[in-house]
Specification:
This protein has 194 residues and is α+β, with helices and mostly antiparallel strands. It has 6 helices and 6 strands. The mean pLDDT is 83.
């Protein structure tokens, strides 16, 4: 018998159940006993363990989902707040620059020595129009008259002891301060009692 014929015969014996029984009875060590797939499937994982494994996997997936949903919700809140902030304070730079123009108008109105009332009224109207535009964009004047000094809104550049006035009270405003919505645009320069 050739080698090829021997290999084919061995394959036939492995495939033939009667031959396998004979080999088993004869004590042949050539074919080890292997369990059937049905035996291994049922024996490896009991049903209770499978349920516990599935429940653990489900719990882990739910936990991941809940964390992801919370993270997304926080992201949406944060971006909405940023959008609102950008819209509210988009004009901050231009408003700060316009405050110098407002200061110049106020000085011009206070120190004007012109006798031409029409010119003076025209400058006053332009000043009021500019202040109206700034107010429409959320710019407001910080009130200082009769107020207590607050370092969050006022900058003390001078101090004076005045009889009958409590320490820490604003005596005089040297330069107006402004707010943009709820954000400080420029603090008021004030003289404070000590």
């Amino acid at each position: 018998m050739t080698e090829k014929e021997q290999n084919q015969e061995e394959i036939r014996q492995d495939a033939d159940p009667e031959k396998q029984e004979e080999n088993k009875d004869a004590g042949s060590a050539e074919t080890p006993e292997t369990p059937s797939p049905d035996e291994t499937l049922g024996a490896e994982i009991p049903v209770e363990d499978a349920e516990e494994n599935l429940q653990a996997a489900l719990d882990e997936a739910n936990d991941k989902y809940m964390r992801l949903a919370a993270e997304y919700q926080n992201y949406r809140r944060r971006t909405d707040a940023e959008k609102t902030g950008i819209a509210q304070y988009a004009n901050e730079r231009i408003a700060k620059d316009l405050l110098n123009v407002v200061d110049s108008f106020e000085r011009a109105l206070e120190t004007s020595e012109t006798t031409d009332e029409g010119f003076k009224n025209g400058v006053d109207l332009i000043y009021k129009q500019l202040m109206t535009v700034l107010n429409n964009f959320g710019v407001s004047v910080i009130e200082t008259e009769g107020k207590e000094f607050d370092p969050n809104f006022h900058s003390a550049v001078m101090s004076e002891e005045v009889e009958g006035v409590e320490p820490g009270m604003i005596l005089m405003e040297l330069q107006k301060g402004y707010m943009l919505n709820d954000r400080l645009l420029r603090p008021s320069m004030v003289k404070v009692s000590v």
